[in-house]
Write a structure and sequence with these properties.
The structure holds two protein chains of two kinds. By secondary structure, chain A is mostly helical. Chain A folds into two domains: about 60 residues, Orthogonal Bundle (Helix Hairpins); about 80 residues. Chain A is about 60% helix and about 0% strand. Chain B is an alpha+beta fold. Chain B has three domains: about 270 residues, ATPase, nucleotide binding domain (Nucleotidyltransferase, domain 5); about 70 residues, Alpha-Beta Complex (Actin, Chain A, domain 4); about 210 residues, Substrate Binding Domain Of DNAk, Chain A, domain 1. In chain B, the strands form seven sheets. In chain B, strands 1, 2, 3, 4, 10 and 11 form a six-stranded mixed sheet that branches. Chain B has a six-stranded mixed sheet with strand order 18-17-12-13-14-19. A five-stranded antiparallel sheet of chain B has the order 27-26-25-22-28. In chain B, helix 1 packs across helix 2, helix 2 packs parallel to helix 9 and helix 10 runs parallel beside helix 13. The longest helix of chain B has 26 residues. The chains are: A mainly alpha, B alpha+beta. Chains A and B meet through helix 2 and helix 3 of A and helix 8, strand 19 and strand 22 of B.
Chain lengths: ~190, ~600
């Protein structure tokens, strides 16, 4: 058994964030992002649930909670707290969350070096983008936003379907489309 | 995953005391949470609001409310503003007629505040939470923290002023929702958007302008008065006249809360004149500045995708928000309710005191903040590559791999930048370091991992590891003045445990650490120095090192300081040559990019 506590030197059967004997925070525990947040690996997630997990984890790991403890504990807490921040952002964003799922499934190389080979959809997206950029009319802007949001929703539903059927190449392609769509309304 | 709760610091027999310091451009306020409530600490004149002003007289220092109105020409005001530029410039002279920097002026002021707290609490206090403008960059943050450390304070946490205000406001009113904190102080403007839920304060984003505050309102009105009544440009009058008219403008601004029109006799360039002072003129003068704050706010909303409807209220912070025009304009531009029921001068310090109590004694409250400005490294053609983008929640640790550009290159220069502009020249240069001792290999083969670690204080630590050899950075050539804040904290903590120590002693330790560090670095580059420098240069370097080593044992602070400066200067040439010799073109580029 290698999971030896740095403080009390006692061991545990599996890696734990807090020593099961003395309660001190332990370094180097590796977990999958979804597991860390106590969530199921899925294309669509509940933002409320994500937020709840985020706050629960920060309440455990934020350096403010360790300020009176040793320097080592403060450092470990900073590493975990940063990790919680990073994963939170990654899971919240549709495109990065889906890329993460591709990676966890062993299909993370699909988006590299491949262009989006559906000229019709690409054209449509570019037209919407131009329309959005060249209008100052807030009402029109809102209308386009609504339309794009609808397209995003549809794409996500498609991706979910592909995920059920393990069609990772299709997920990858549609995720590129999703990233284009989200870029339009980002700013 | 187990859900063990974190051990509460139950070992502590009594409550830990921690003061909250709002070190403002115009006024400073300290407070402490004690016996279940926040107490503001007053000065010898029973005043809570202490002007951030220092006057150095022959062999005597005066602070805050102890400075008489007629002494204003010889008084240092708004020293905090210099932290945005170069706080180490020796712009002032102290009571012993020695040239000192803004960091040292601020240190003296922090000492004064600490003394007030000591006598209020009837025992020396070290722990504090210090607030800074949310939009302050790395350099400004760490230098302010350094000033406080030098004054013997142990800064347990640095928090952003609007965040502190929202913390106090939320705890007291128990309000929940999304709030805009509009903080216009004496020197800076901050806007933060926060989500408040039960005990949790989460900053969604922040923006601002570190050169827009009450001082600037005074200036534009002074410009108006000069132009209107004397047909003079502000830039055309001398420094003393400038100080006088700015002082007057400030007084008028404060008087508008009682009267909208009054008259005064003023003298500029020996010309006396009776003039009318009207609120209307004042409002017209400052209108553009106020509109700028609203534009910054709208931009932030856009960036975060938060529309007016989802904002539950605007909390006003900072003395300058007393200008009626601001509330008028805000009401017009936003649909949300304005909350000005808290004293805008005191709420920041109050939040700091509450947070200080929480972190030292344990609490369920949680304060989550973000970094205001993007951090990155310079790449090809002087462009900035972002490593951590603005409004990223802190703490944050990000890593990026770099590789060499030329065959056989054995070192890589890393220049660290902060800001939002594309080109590095337009961003703040936080410093550079050289990772050397790489094994000579073909271009693109070595892997150097640069790690940006931004802690909960918003203070950045950069380290680099050569992945092929596992070598940690045996850095750094360009030394400069910055001492590692971690080191500093260690010094302060150890000196506190050794009971009271004199401030001079602390400064002596600081300079000794810096000097030793420099000597070590030079030792590391010995061979390069012999290769690159001329004889005279080498002789000088060695001579200074020998003398410095002697003085390090003698503990003579001013001698060590002088020799350190000399040595720094003497090796600067070498640092320059070393950089030139190895980096004619580009230095670091993203490893992935180069593979393509």
């Amino acid at each position: 058994m290698k999971n030896k506590c740095w403080s009390c030197s006692k061991e545990s059967s599996k890696p734990e964030f807090f020593c099961i004997h003395c309660g001190k925070i332990q370094e180097g525990v590796e977990t999958n992002e979804f597991e860390f947040f106590g969530m199921k690996e899925s294309i669509l997630i509940s933002i409320d649930k994500l937020e709840e997990s985020y706050l629960r984890l920060q309440s455990k790991f934020h350096p403010d909670k360790y300020i009176n403890l040793s320097e080592k504990e403060r450092e470990i807490s900073t590493i975990y707290s940063s990790k919680v921040n990073e994963i939170y952002e990654k899971l919240r964003n549709n495109v990065s969350r889906i890329n993460l799922i591709l990676k966890l499934s062993g299909f993370d190389n699909y988006d590299e070096g491949k262009s989006f080979d559906d000229p019709e959809t690409l054209n449509e997206i570019m037209e919407i983008q131009e329309e959005f950029m060249f209008t100052d009319n807030l009402k029109i802007k809102q209308k386009i936003k609504d339309k794009v949001n609808k397209m995003i929703k549809e794409t996500l539903t498609d991706i979910e379907k592909y995920f059920e059927n393990n069609e990772y190449e299709k997920i990858s392609k549609n995720n590129i489309k999703l990233s284009y769509l989200e870029k339009i309304i980002e700013k | 995953m187990s859900l063990l709760t974190i051990e509460e610091p139950s070992k502590i027999s009594k409550e830990n005391t921690c003061i909250g310091i709002d070190f403002g451009t115009t006024n400073s306020v300290t407070s402490v949470f004690i016996n279940g409530e926040v107490k503001f600490i007053s000065d010898e004149n029973d005043k809570i609001l202490i002007p951030t002003a220092i006057s150095y007289k022959k062999e005597k220092k005066n602070f805050g409310n102890n400075i008489f109105e007629n002494e204003f020409l010889d008084t240092i005001y708004s020293v905090k503003r210099n932290f945005v530029k170069d706080p180490d410039d020796k712009l002032f002279k102290n009571h012993d007629d020695i040239k000192i920097s803004s960091v040292e002026v601020a240190k003296d002021f922090f000492s004064y505040l600490k003394n007030l707290c000591d006598s209020y609490l009837k025992s020396p206090i070290y722990d504090c939470v210090l607030t800074v403008p949310a939009y302050f960059d790395e350099k400004s943050r760490s230098e302010i923290m350094r000033s406080a450390f030098l004054a013997g304070l142990n800064v347990r946490r640095l928090i952003n002023e609007p965040t502190a205000a929202a913390f106090a406001y939320g705890l007291e009113t128990k309000k929940t929702g999304t709030f805009l904190v509009y903080d216009l102080g004496g020197g800076t403007f901050d806007i933060s958007i926060l989500k408040l839920s039960e005990g949790i304060f989460k900053v969604l984003g922040t923006s601002g302008d570190t050169m827009l505050g009450g001082d600037d309102l005074d200036k534009v009105f002074a410009e108006f008065i000069l132009k209107e009544n004397f047909n003079l440009e502000f830039s055309s009058i001398n420094e003393e006249e400038k100080k006088k008219i700015l002082r007057l403008s400030k007084t008028y601004k404060e008087k508008f809360s009682q009267k909208e029109i009054f008259s005064d006799i003023i003298e500029v360039n020996n010309k006396k004149k009776k003039i009318d002072i009207r609120l209307n003129d004042f409002n017209k003068s400052i209108e553009l500045l106020i509109e700028r704050t609203i534009k910054i706010t709208k931009n932030l909303q856009n960036e975060l995708n938060i529309n007016d409807d989802s904002i539950d209220g605007i909390i006003l912070v900072g003395g300058s928000t007393r200008c009626k025009l601001i509330s008028q304009k805000l009401k017009k531009s936003f649909k949300s309710k304005l909350f000005d029921d808290f004293n805008p001068d005191l709420v920041v310090s109050k939040g700091a005191a509450l947070h200080g109590y929480d972190i030292l004694n344990g609490s369920n409250n949680l304060l989550l903040d973000v970094t205001p400005l993007s951090l990155g490294i310079e790449t090809v053609g002087g462009l900035m590559e972002k490593v951590i983008s603005r409004n990223t929640p802190i703490p944050a640790i990000k890593e990026q791999s770099f590789t060499t550009f030329e065959n056989g290159q054995t070192s890589i220069k890393v220049k660290i930048l902060q800001g939002e502009r594309e080109t590095s020249d337009n961003n703040r240069n936080l410093g550079e370091f050289i990772l050397s001792g790489l094994d000579p290999k073909p271009a693109g083969i070595p892997r150097v991992k640069v790690r940006f670690s931004l802690d909960a204080d918003g203070i950045l630590l950069v380290s680099a590891i050569d992945e092929s050899t596992g070598k940690k950075n045996n850095l750094v050539i360009k030394t400069g003045k910055d001492i590692d804040l971690k080191e500093m904290r260690r010094i302060v903590e150890s000196s506190i445990s050794n009971a009271e120590e004199d401030i001079n002693q602390r400064m002596l330790i600081e300079i000794k650490v810096k000097a030793q560090k420099l000597i070590n670095e030079i030792g590391f580059y010995n061979k390069d120095i012999e290769k690159l420098c001329d004889k005279k240069n080498i002789v000088n370097i060695n001579k200074i090192i020998t003398m410095l080593k002697v003085e390090l044992n003698n503990n003579n602070k001013s001698r060590i300081e002088a020799l350190y400066e000399q040595l720094n200067k003497e090796t600067e040439k070498f640092a320059q040559k070393k950089i030139e010799s190895e980096f004619t073109s580009l230095v670091g580029k993203d490893a992935k990019q180069l593979e393509e």
